[in-house]
């Protein structure tokens, strides 16, 4: 992203600043220092021999790679200088098929580390940046993704980082998620076409000839995650065909296409058993991600672990004796577990929870629904505090193509411990409720979804212990954008204040300044501004900032290339001109989403002070 507009670290305000209130204390047993000290375990993969797992541990300043025996034990550190990466935007370290190497990204390049120990070495210095390493069956060659002709392409290098062989050269779309066949002769991958951004195809590449062909593709239908059966006879993948992300299967010779699931719920992940008879599934049921097993011939499905939880990344041991997976709940940190497939016995493998934090009583949210302005039912998660203080927070998630789920949200827990009621609406456009609901905000950003958030505030009027005059909107990314929308597009003024983290308000200028992937992401929903300009204008709340009557806190990282920091500069410039009450803080070294503990402490303290002043009596 070119830096035509210079931005720098700053703190600005118009109106009295939110200094600490001496009469409002942190809840007993809680502190900002405590909640920012909690590390995150994530992104694991089981080694092909089943003896070790690799995973990423987000600490105060690093997102380093570790290994751990699959039977449990002390973790060993692999990388020592891998900078913090947002968990939702990172990749899983990849074991080589012979268990001897780990491939992962550091600073935008592919690095290899010997599993027995040794410093990671860069192997992609022949390009400006690289990502998504995928091993070939010989454990020597590696497929990686690079950008060429303004498109994501595949090249092949080796463990020595030799000059790559180009595998794809199609400038008409992006090539994603390379999966070599068991015999190493072909690669299944996802192709995102530029002439239909709502379509992704499953394609096959012949490595010897370089020829590609589309195995599965339909207009305005997305297909994802092609995965080979162990014998190479089948490809399982997910497709939106039918209105949900269902699991499908077909042979690589174009025969045998059939649908495996029709649960009325999204299949999030799938993993073949070693004998090729079953698949481990992660099924999203309204924000609860259950773990189950599907027999692909009979279609029989068995739910292994259900409830108000989130499972992810299931991997089979080579003998099928156990499955490793990640697990979290609103009251439990993400950890890695192992389940014996015969007895269903579960063993916890990682232990990151801080005892002082979990000595406190954490709250499970309720899954609720309310009707919006047009009668559409909006799903949401509602946290009720034990002792309400009268104040409440509406938290629109980012995306918009995302979902608030039964996940661990420590900031929500902190505010609930203070007595705040907390509601997280999955407004129209959210995933997990079918394709029609996900597409309900196409050509409609800032309108229907804004009303869904306003109606969340209206719903709070029916919740005991909530004062309708003391409700805030707090969101990041698209949630920050929706915060600016509800403050400027709500004639009923249901919000007493708003917090906008790394959000925007002018869709045209934000589109022009963000990175290529985010420009195309925006065009999925709104089209190109040259052809659909009025939709962009109608979706930009900056044109209604004169209607803002409540204070707003604006926070942004200066290394953000998703929603550029210039977006918040533009927000503040307009607020100044209109003499609105605001506070504004920027953070050098922070990308999209605040990652460093020092930053998080400052961000959380500012949010807490701001809300305490404008929501507490």
* Main sheet specs: 9 strands, mixed
How many helices? The count is 11
The general outline is: globular
Roughly what percent helix? 10-25%
- Would you tell me the structural class of the helices and strands? alpha+beta
Rg over CA atoms, rounded to whole Å, is 24 Å
Residue share in β-strands:
35-45%
Strand order of the largest sheet: 1-37-36-35-34-32-33-31-30
Task: State the end-to-end distance.
Answer: 44 Å
CATH class of the largest domain: Mainly Beta
CATH homologous superfamily placement of the largest domain? TolB, C-terminal domain
Enter the CATH topology name of the largest domain: Neuraminidase
Low-pLDDT stretches are none
Mean pLDDT across residues = 96
């Amino acid at each position: 992203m070119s830096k035509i507009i210079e931005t720098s670290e700053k703190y600005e305000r118009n109106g009295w600043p939110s200094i600490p209130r001496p009469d409002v204390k942190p809840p007993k047993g809680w502190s900002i220092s405590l909640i920012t000290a909690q590390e995150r375990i994530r992104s694991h993969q089981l080694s092909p021999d089943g003896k070790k797992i690799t995973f990423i541990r987000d600490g105060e300043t690093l997102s380093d790679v570790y290994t751990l025996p699959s039977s449990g034990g002390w973790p060993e550190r692999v990388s020592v200088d891998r900078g913090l990466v947002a968990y939702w935007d990172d990749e899983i370290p990849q074991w080589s098929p012979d268990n001897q190497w780990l491939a992962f990204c550091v600073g935008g390049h592919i690095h290899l580390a010997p599993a027995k120990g040794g410093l990671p070495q860069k192997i992609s210095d022949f390009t400006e940046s690289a990502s998504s390493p995928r091993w070939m069956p010989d454990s020597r060659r590696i497929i990686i993704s690079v950008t060429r002709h303004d498109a994501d392409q595949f090249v092949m290098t080796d463990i020595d980082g030799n000059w790559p062989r180009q595998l794809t050269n199609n400038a008409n779309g992006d090539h994603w998620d390379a999966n070599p066949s068991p015999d190493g002769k072909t690669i299944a991958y996802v192709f995102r076409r530029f002439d239909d951004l709502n379509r992704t195809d499953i394609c096959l590449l012949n490595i010897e000839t370089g020829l590609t062909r589309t195995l599965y593709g339909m207009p305005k239908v997305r297909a994802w995650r092609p995965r080979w059966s162990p014998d190479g006879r089948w490809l399982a993948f997910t497709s939106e065909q039918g209105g949900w992300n269902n699991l499908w299967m077909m042979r690589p010779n174009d025969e045998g296409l059939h649908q495996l699931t029709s649960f009325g719920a999204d299949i999030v992940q799938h993993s073949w058993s070693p004998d090729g008879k079953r698949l481990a599934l992660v099924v999203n049921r309204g924000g609860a991600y259950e773990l189950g097993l599907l027999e692909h011939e009979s279609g029989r499905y068995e739910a292994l672990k259900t409830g108000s939880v989130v499972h992810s990344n299931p991997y089979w041991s080579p003998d099928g004796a156990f499955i490793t997976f990640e697990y979290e709940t609103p009251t439990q940190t993400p950890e890695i577990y192992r389940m014996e497939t015969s007895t269903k016995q579960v063993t916890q493998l990682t232990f990151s929870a801080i005892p002082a934090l979990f000595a406190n009583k954490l709250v499970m949210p309720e899954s609720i629904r309310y009707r919006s302005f047009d009668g559409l039912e909006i799903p949401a998660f509602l946290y009720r505090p034990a002792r309400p203080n009268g104040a409440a927070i509406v938290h629109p998630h980012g995306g918009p193509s995302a979902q608030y789920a039964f996940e661990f949200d420590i900031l929500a827990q902190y505010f609930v411990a203070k007595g705040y009621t907390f509601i997280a609406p999955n407004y129209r456009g959210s995933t997990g409720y079918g394709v029609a609901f996900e597409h309900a905000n196409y050509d409609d950003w800032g309108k229907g979804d804004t009303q869904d958030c306003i109606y969340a505030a209206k719903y709070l009027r029916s919740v005991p212990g909530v004062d309708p005059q003391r409700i805030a909107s707090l969101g990041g990314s698209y949630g920050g954008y929706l915060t600016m929308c509800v403050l400027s597009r709500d004639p009923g003024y249901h919000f007493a204040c708003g917090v906008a983290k790394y959000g925007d308000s002018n869709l045209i200028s934000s589109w022009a300044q963000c990175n290529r992937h985010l420009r195309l992401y925006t065009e999925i929903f709104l089209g190109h501004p040259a052809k659909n300009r009025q939709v962009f204008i109608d979706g930009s709340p900056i044109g209604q900032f004169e209607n803002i009557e409540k204070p707003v806190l604006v926070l942004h990282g200066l290394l953000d290339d998703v929603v550029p920091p210039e977006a918040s500069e533009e927000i503040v410039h307009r607020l100044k001109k209109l003499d609105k009450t605001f506070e504004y803080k920027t953070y050098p070294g922070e990308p999209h989403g605040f990652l460093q503990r020092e930053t998080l402490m400052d961000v959380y303290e500012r949010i807490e002070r701001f809300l305490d002043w404008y929501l507490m009596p």
